[in-house]
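FAQ: What does the model actually see?

It sees only this:
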Amino acid sequence: MVKSSESGTQARPAAKKTGGKRTAAEKTTAKTAKKAPAAKSAAARKTTAETTSTAETTSTAGKKSAAPKKATKTAASKTAAAKKTTAAKKTAAAKKTTAAKKTTAAKKTAAKKQAPAAGAAARAPESHTALVRRARKINRELAEVYSYAHPELDFENPYQLLLATVLSAQTTDLRVNQTTPGLFARYPEPEDLAAANPEEVEELIRPTGFFRAKTKSIMGIARAVRDEFGGEVPGRLEDLVKLPGVGRKTAFVVLGNAFGVPGITVDTHFGRLVRRWRWTEETDPDKVERAVGALFPKSEWTELSHRVIFHGRRICHSRKPACGACPITPLCPSYGEGETDPEKARKLLKYEMGGMPGQRLKPPPDYPGKPAPPLGAA
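And it is asked to produce this:
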């Protein structure tokens, strides 16, 4: 028992000695162990540094990338704002246009309400009796407006009126009135004109147009009056229409205004207006004359012609009738073919109705307008 105890006691110091001295391998391992954490720490620091650098680079790149994106967003915002502004302007313009259209429509509606009978007359069928009443009412209205209506050719006797009427074809009464003073002064009687030099006559009437044909007509009339009627213009329709260049229209002008014989003068104005008023649909002057003549007493024919022609020249024009300034709109089935706005319509009025000179150089005393200027006057 004692030996065993001693053997154990002696073995411990030997172990201590061996533990006190480290071998080279242990030292190397220890150094390696010490260096390993340092290396790991350095590697970790390097990795961290690289990560940080990469993050910074990524951050910088992100910022650089974000800059164009921001610019793109700004541009997009500006474009959107511009589009909104343009859209707003278009909307405002559209609203203004719509408002203007509504205003115009309201004016037209109001103007149409002023003449309710016009639309009804255009749509509803009209009996002959109703037509006669309406036509005669129009004549009465025109008589109040044009109480001074007269033939718009200057003349002093039947001979002068006959020649002036022939010369008025395809020209205005104004141009005839500016031309005939020289003609009548040079050839005061039919026998004077019958013996005239045609070339001299042509020069005198040249301003009226178609002067060669008209020279032949008026010289033929002068010879016929001299040779067949003793130098006096005849006062019968059947005699007048036998003269060169004289038809029913010219004959009725002379008969009605120089001899007091009633007649209807169907010129372009008269024919246009009676068709607008639905008095007749005829276009042939002779048929128009008969159709309109049946609506009125014979005693009214001459003055009716003057009033209708006056109205056609002053208000009821061919291309732009001044409907808004017309005194017979409730009776007119064609109301609305022309300008219905009163202010605009007033600007379309002519002669004394529009404050302008008339067509006669020597108008009747009751004419309210200014006389026409002589040929060549400013």
